[in-house]
Specification:
By secondary structure, this protein is mainly β. It contains no helices and 7 strands. The protein starts with a strand and ends in a 12-residue tail after the last strand. It is globular, with a radius of gyration of 12 Å.
Length: 85
């Protein structure tokens, strides 16, 4: 499922749960930064220069669930989410 769409913007996003979910950045033609969530540690995805093309943050979950994540527009250098979750 697509969670967010981006175009021509730098962005950082953080995920932690649900355990076993897979997150990635999908550009028009290619997947990047595929990560599997462990339910404990934050996983960071960044969108940078490639967002001159359409970029999407996508998630694949093992079952129906709610997902909490943090997106920080314009700041890829941030190292942790702006709010803990």
């Amino acid at each position: 499922r697509t969670l967010e769409w981006f175009w021509n913007v730098k962005t950082a996003a953080f995920f932690r749960a649900p355990e076993g979910a897979q997150v990635k950045i999908r550009y028009d033609w290619k997947d990047r930064q595929k990560k599997t969530l462990d339910g404990v540690n934050y996983k960071k995805l960044t969108i940078g220069k490639w967002s001159i093309f359409t970029a999407r943050i996508q998630i694949k979950v093992p079952r129906d669930t709610e997902v909490t994540y943090d997106v920080d527009y314009g700041n890829v250098a941030i190292s942790s989410p702006s709010i803990p979750f």
